[in-house]
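pasting for the record
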Amino acid sequence: MKNQEGTEEKLIENLNEVRNLNRSPDQIIEGTCLERTCCCSSQNDLTISEYKSYQNLKKSVIPSFDENNPIHEESLRELLNSTKKILFNKDISESQDLISEATSMKSKNSEDEQIWRQIGFQTGNPHSDFRAGGVFSLNVMNYYVKNHESKYKEMINEKYFTFALVSIKLSHFIRMYLYLLPDNEITVNKKMGKFVFASRKELKLFCYTLFENRNLLFDIISALLDFVHQKFKIEKKDLSEAENYLLIEPIINMAVQILKNTLNDLELTDNITLKLKFRCNSSLSEKLNLIPI
């Protein structure tokens, strides 16, 4: 109990120290992680609870995918089995599971390889595709499949649409936007001007809702996945796979900007997910910028 109180006091001390710096938003973005997530202006300060929720989220979404981690492998197996159930309309029992722990999914039959590609992985072995998204992007996929089964089935049957690729890229872009990646990666990309980043107001509104809804990030990415799919169907031409592939990043970039605009216009009493879905629907008719990120 004493240690916990000491931690609380230290956290409050750190927060107050940062608040007294009285620095501009741009200076804070270029500063340390503590500065970025604690202060910009008094009305956008994070509360202790919001700060803790944010830090807990960051710890959970940073880890890379590790094929030697049995929990990660189980999540990958869950995605394959759920997809089989949806495609073939039957349950896949443990005895029917074609992925054995002994082979760690390195020896797969042609049916599995075909399913992995249909899900949207580059090859029949999905392990190497998670570099940008980490294990979080895999959790995003499983969350979406569980909660949006009919839409998922439509996505993986859409010609040229790559559900896995979109989920991984979108997960990476959203985590970058919300500073939910290692500091060195954020700093490099901030200097390159490659990504959209949240303002303090936007981060405050995100963390305010996060404290009440632990699935907030999953719900946000699910809504944006729907948008990317619908926008892709609108923009898709009778072109080659490679030409349609080029549509993905500009649409994802557009999705991140929609989230930024939604949070920037949000009030504390608003429902982020509902507002986001409304803005996504309104943005489907907007012109797509085809300049790659």
